[in-house]
C-alpha cells in the first residue's frame, strides 16, 4: 500500500483522516506530522502526539514554526483576542493567513525526505466557514505547486473535502471510531477536549453535525 503522511492536529477532522488512512493502509503505512505554531492551546500539540502514539503510526513528527505568530495576528494564536466573526468580514478572526499552504509545503518537504509521495489533510469546504485554504481549488493548486517545486510526484488527499460534519461523523461510525473521536479529540477554540465548551463556533459546528448524524441514524433504525 502507498504510504501517506497525515497533517495531524488532534482535532476531529484530522483524526478521522488518520483513522481512515489506518483502516485502508495499515498503521505501518501511516505517518503523522503536527505543527506547533503558537496556537492558543499548547495542549493540542501534546494531544496529537498522544493520539499518534496510541494509534501506533509508523512515525510522528512535531515541527515547530514558532515564528509564525510573530508575522501574523489572529484570535487562534492570540489568547487575549475574543473569537468573533465581524459582520461582513470574509473570514472569522480565527483564520490564520496561509496556514494550510505553509503546513502542506513543510509537510511535503518532510514527506519527500521520508520517501513518501502522498499527503493527507482534513480540510472540508462543505460546512464552509470562510476559510479560503479549505477549498478544493486551493488543494489542487497546491498539489501542482509542490510537484513543480520539488520534482516529486506528490498527491494531496483531502478525503473530507465534500463531507458535511454530519457525514464526517457517519464516516467515523463506519470506521468504528465515533466514540474515540468524540471523547479523545480537541476541536474547541477554548481548548477543552471531547465535547468541548459547547459555546464556541467550532463546538457548535461539531455538536450540530453529531446531532444531525445521530438523529438521522435513530430515524433509520
Ligand atoms: Zn468550544
Can you describe what's shown?
Helices cover 44% and strands 10% of the residues. A five-stranded parallel sheet has the order 3-2-1-4-5, sandwiched between helices. It is of the alpha/beta class and 221 residues long. The chain has one domain: HUPs (Rossmann fold). Zinc ion binds next to α8.
Give the topology, please.
Blueprint (H helix, E strand, L loop, with lengths): L3 E4 L4 H14 L4 E7 L6 H12 L4 E6 L3 H4 L27 H16 L3 E3 L15 H15 L4 E3 L7 H10 L3 H7 L16 H20 L1
Parallel strand pairs: 1-2, 1-4, 2-3, 4-5
The protein binds zinc ion.
Zinc ion (ZN) binds next to helix 8.
Looking at the structure, the CATH topology is: Rossmann fold
Small ligands present: zinc ion
- Write down the secondary-structure element order: EHEHEHHEHEHHH
Spatial strand sequence of the major β-sheet: 3-2-1-4-5
CA(first)-CA(last) distance: 36 Å
Task: Say how many strands there are.
Answer: 5
Q: Report the biggest beta sheet as strand number plus sense, adding barrel if it closes.
A: 5 strands, parallel
The domain tally reads: 1
List its salient traits:
221 residues; alpha/beta; Rossmann fold; 5-stranded parallel β-sheet; 44% helix; 10% strand; globular; binds zinc ion
Summarize the structure.
The chain contains eight helices and five strands, in the order βαβαβααβαβααα. It has 221 residues and is of the alpha/beta class.
Amino acid at each position: 500500500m502507498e504510504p501517506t503522511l497525515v497533517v495531524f492536529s488532534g482535532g476531529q477532522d484530522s483524526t478521522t483522516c488518520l483513522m481512515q488512512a489506518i483502516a485502508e493502509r495499515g498503521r505501518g503505512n501511516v505517518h503523522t506530522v503536527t505543527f506547533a505554531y503558537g496556537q492558543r492551546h499548547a495542549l493540542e500539540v501534546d494531544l496529537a502526539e498522544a493520539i499518534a502514539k496510541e494509534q501506533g503510526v509508523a512515525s510522528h513528527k512535531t515541527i515547530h514554526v514558532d515564528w509564525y505568530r510573530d508575522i501574523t495576528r489572529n484570535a487562534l494564536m492570540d489568547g487575549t483576542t475574543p473569537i468573533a466573526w465581524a459582520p461582513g468580514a470574509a473570514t472569522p478572526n480565527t483564520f490564520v493567513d496561509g496556514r494550510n499552504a505553509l503546513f502542506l509545503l513543510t509537510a511535503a518537504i518532510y514527506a519527500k525526505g521520508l520517501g513518501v509521495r502522498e499527503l493527507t489533510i482534513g480540510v472540508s469546504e462543505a460546512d464552509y466557514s470562510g476559510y479560503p485554504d479549505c477549498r478544493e481549488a486551493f488543494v489542487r493548486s497546491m498539489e501542482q505547486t509542490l510537484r513543480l517545486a520539488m520534482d516529486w510526484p506528490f498527491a494531496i488527499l483531502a478525503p473530507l473535502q465534500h463531507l458535511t460534519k454530519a457525514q464526517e461523523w457517519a464516516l467515523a461510525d463506519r470506521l468504528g471510531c465515533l466514540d474515540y473521536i468524540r471523547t479523545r479529540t480537541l476541536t474547541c477554540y477554548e481548548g477543552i477536549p471531547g465535547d468541548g465548551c459547547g459555546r464556541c463556533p467550532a463546538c457548535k459546528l461539531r455538536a450540530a453535525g453529531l446531532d444531525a448524524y445521530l438523529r438521522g441514524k435513530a430515524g433509520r433504525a
